[in-house]
Specification:
Blueprint: E1 4-8, H1 12-24, E2 28-32, H2 35-44, E3 49-53, H3 61-71, E4 77-81, H4 86-94, E5 99-102, E6 105-106, H5 107-125, H6 143-156, E7 162-165, H7 172-181, E8 190-194, H8 200-208, E9 209-210, E10 222-223, H9 225-228, E11 233-237, H10 244-256, E12 258-259, E13 268-269, E14 273-278, H11 282-287, H12 293-299, E15 302-305, H13 315-326, E16 341-342, H14 344-352, H15 358-372, E17 377-378, E18 385-386, E19 393-394, H16 404-418, H17 423-430, H18 434-446, E20 449-450
Parallel strand pairs: 1-2, 1-3, 3-4, 4-5, 7-14, 7-15, 8-11, 11-14, 16-17
Antiparallel strand pairs: 6-20, 9-10, 12-13, 18-19
Helix pairs in contact: 2-3, 6-7, 13-15, 16-17, 17-18
The structure holds adenosine-5'-triphosphate and magnesium ion.
The site of adenosine-5'-triphosphate has 17 residues, from helix 7 and helix 15.
């Protein structure tokens, strides 16, 4: 049976374009035209994956995310966002969204994220995840990060508990996988659980599992993540979000290396390596009484901190090159030229940005910029980010080198973003007819952009 996807967007055209494309890729698509409808569809039928627009009138994407995560924490949810609501997207990641895509996006990037999501969904249905997935390259030339990687390699060989701190999008999960893959557990499972995304009661049963009949609704026995991670590594993502009672239970697992399945009689002994991540300071959480001190010391056996991207700007050009290659392999750009160069002012614009969403945000910006380029060089004008303090987004700077076609496209998309994709308002600002605007968008769509 082909994997099933629930697609939610209140824009009819977008819904149609997306479901056409994804059906052609071999997925079974069901659609909803509001968040409320999506939540209600999901409660009566199961899907392998959910894709939802963030901004919708009746039940927005965040609502969809929260509601679905409550009942089905393993279902990957991808949110579609406009650049203006990128902060929402970052929050969504913290709540356990699988990923987000920024409008406009290409068929290829859509396919890639959907494929990743479906793979993850199907994996999580297997008794244990495959620990041998290839490690993506950890790109950095920053001395702090390189030292960190070196240490990571060394401590990977022991079973020591690792606490990875760092802002959203700095690569915490990547580092955790790196450690797993360099360890003697590399052939075992790598099981991740996002403590922020799952409501408390459910988190407990996800972690510990339950016996048949342990509570109403426990129709079948279910193994917890600790047991599923046996002989491998468990990643407790956003551990700082765990409730105090659950923290007490986690402490017991770490101390005694066994778990008490809910409703089970005997403790089950487990052989796992624990890695935890947090995007806030756990020390501060302890000081404020929200995190148990004894658990903090148990987890903090080996602390590692990933610096935010703004503190390792030297990595930006390196990462840009890496993401350029990653996102335009082979036929990716249709019959367009491959982007191989980045102009100096483009680099300057990237260096000048704050990168609140860190490396994940940089990757998105590069991926998007590629879509704008007609030639082989990425210019400042192709990059759509807010220049700090100016309140303006590049390509506000009129830099020579852009073709009129590129400039027009950038201006139209930027205007649409600023008016939240209200076409009537955008047409007015651009001083063109709504019809003309619609035709332009159609043209871009035919070029392979989802807008
Ligand atoms: N050093 C790096 N080299 C290449 N890609 C990276 C690097 N660091 C992060 N990435 C990419 O950036 C994205 C975010 O990384 P990751 O999920 O590991 O971050 P995170 O710190 O766990 O974020 P969050 O707090 O939002 O969960 C991923 O797509 C990852 O592949
Ligand atoms: Mg993470």
């Amino acid at each position: 049976m082909s994997p099933s996807i629930l697609l939610t967007d209140d824009d009819r055209e977008m819904r149609y374009a997306l479901s056409e494309t994804l059906s052609r890729c071999g997925y079974t698509i069901d659609t909803a035209s509001s968040g409320d409808e999506a939540v209600s569809k999901f409660s009566s039928k199961s899907f392998d994956m959910v894709i939802s627009d963030i901004r919708m009138v009746h039940g927005d994407g965040m609502h969809v995310l929260r509601e679905i995560k409550k009942h089905s924490p393993d279902t990957p949810i991808v949110l579609i966002t406009a650049y203006g609501t990128i902060d929402n997207a970052v929050d969504a990641m913290k709540l356990g969204a699988f990923d987000y895509i920024i409008k406009p996006f290409s068929i290829e990037s859509l396919e890639e994220v959907v494929k990743k999501g479906i793979d993850t969904a199907l994996d999580s249905k297997k008794p244990a995840t495959d620990g041998k997935r290839p490690v993506s390259e950890f790109i950095s030339n920053d001395s702090k990060v390189l030292r960190l990687l070196n240490t990571a390699k060394q401590i990977a060989l022991s079973d020591v508990t690792v606490l990875i701190e760092g802002e959203s999008g700095t690569g915490k999960e990547m580092l955790a996988k790196f450690i797993h893959n360099k360890s003697h557990r590399a052939d075992g499972p790598f099981v991740a659980i996002n403590c922020a995304a799952i409501p408390d009661g459910l988190l407990e049963s996800e972690l510990f599992g339950y016996e048949r009949g342990a509570f109403t609704g426990a129709i079948n026995k279910r193994s917890g993540k600790f047991v599923l991670a046996s002989s491998g590594t468990i990643l407790l993502d956003e551990v700082g979000e765990m409730s105090l009672p659950l923290q007490a239970k986690l402490l017991r697992v770490l101390q005694e290396r066994h778990v008490d399945t809910i409703g089970g009689r005997e403790p089950v002994f487990i052989n796992i390596r624990v890695i935890a991540t947090t995007n806030k300071s756990l020390k501060k959480e302890v000081e404020d009484g929200r995190f148990r001190e004894d658990l903090y010391y148990r987890l903090n056996v080996f602390p590692m901190t990933l610096p935010p991207l703004r503190e390792r700007k030297g990595d930006i050009p390196l990462l840009v090159d890496y993401f350029l290659k990653k996102h335009q392999q082979g036929e990716r750009r249709g019959n367009k030229m491959t982007v191989t160069k980045v102009s100096e002012d483009a680099v300057a614009a990237l260096l000048n940005h704050e990168w609140k969403g860190n490396i994940r945000e940089l990757e998105n910006v590069v991926e998007r910029a590629i879509l704008m380029v007609d030639g082989d060089t990425l210019l400042a004008g192709h990059i759509m980010i807010e220049v700090r303090g100016s309140g303006q987004k590049t390509p506000a700077t009129l830099a020579a080198g852009l073709s009129v076609h590129e400039m027009e496209k950038a201006l139209i998309l930027k205007t649409l973003e600023e008016v939240d994709w209200n076409r009537t308002k955008a047409a007015k600002l651009l001083n063109i007819g709504v019809r003309t605007l619609r035709n332009k968008l159609k043209e871009y769509r035919e070029d392979g952009l989802f807008i």
